[in-house]
Write a structure and sequence with these properties.
Metallo-beta-lactamase, Chain A, seven-stranded mixed sheet, 13 strands, alpha/beta
């Protein structure tokens, strides 16, 4: 498999409303994390940071233009790889131990970070057998009800365990924009890795059921509108009820 030059590793797309999607197009869609950059008046926010196989700060100048808070929606390898590059790193306390000590097993890299997840390999010296996320100890905790204040916009923290114990989403009530992490996106949802909890996942989906976002930017796959969001939540709940998981 051919390797991609570091300068070509990231793709940057401005979506409007001072939101930019950064991703790694040479990773297959199921494993490709959406990295969300949100511009604020006083500081910026970065939700997740990709695999970390190429420096985000070096190759995406956008993330160095202003003071920035880096948030981990959860602690899987595809979402926290470049968190060590930022001084302010926030996450739920249930994810903090993994961020500070990101073993291959705890981040799921041991099971999923193989050559098979790539369309083209990262530049040398990347090696799937030895790849590991660098430690990025949290500098502050986020929990339900907290607010990320960027000066002219406020992102409300939702704690949505299920996919992982400290899964987070951020909701901008003024605009109806939801950054949903891996709790919900328009693709196959994962509820069976070692620290997932199906009962927690159902409770999180029940909470989302009463939310009416205008647009949803998930941890993977393309963004979608509120109508599709409601359909995805309802379909997940119906499917799991049919499976008898909660009887």
């Amino acid at each position: 498999m051919i390797r991609t030059a570091a300068k070509n590793w990231y793709r940057v797309r401005r979506l409007g409303e001072d939101i930019t999607l950064i991703d790694e197009p040479h990773i297959k869609p199921f494993y490709r994390c959406n990295i969300w950059h949100i511009r604020g008046r006083d500081r910026d926010c970065l939700i997740d940071s990709g695999m970390g196989v190429v420096s985000l700060r070096k190759h995406v100048p956008l993330v160095t233009e202003k003071p920035l808070v880096a948030i981990a929606s959860h602690s899987h390898f595809d979402h926290i790889g470049c968190h060590h590059e930022f001084d302010t790193r926030l996450a739920h306390r249930a994810e903090a131990e993994i961020l500070g000590n990101p073993t291959r097993e705890a981040t799921l890299a041991a099971d999923y970070a193989t050559d098979g997840i790539f369309e083209q390999l990262p530049p040398e010296p990347y090696n799937s057998e030895t790849y590991a996320v660098k430690a990025a100890p949290v500098t502050g905790y986020l929990d339900e009800g907290d607010v990320i204040d960027l000066g002219d916009r406020r992102l409300h923290v939702l704690h949505l365990p299920g996919h992982s114990p400290g899964g987070l989403a951020l909701y901008e009530a003024d605009t109806g924009i939801l950054f949903s992490g891996d709790t919900i996106y328009d693709g196959p949802l994962v509820d069976n890795v070692y620290h997932s909890d199906i009962d927690d996942y159902r409770r999180s989906m029940e909470r989302l059921r009463v939310l009416w976002p205008r647009v949803v930017h998930g941890g993977h796959f393309p963004s979608f509108d509120g109508k599709h969001f409601t359909a995805l939540v309802e379909n997940w709940l119906r499917a799991h009820d049919r499976e008898g998981a909660y009887v």
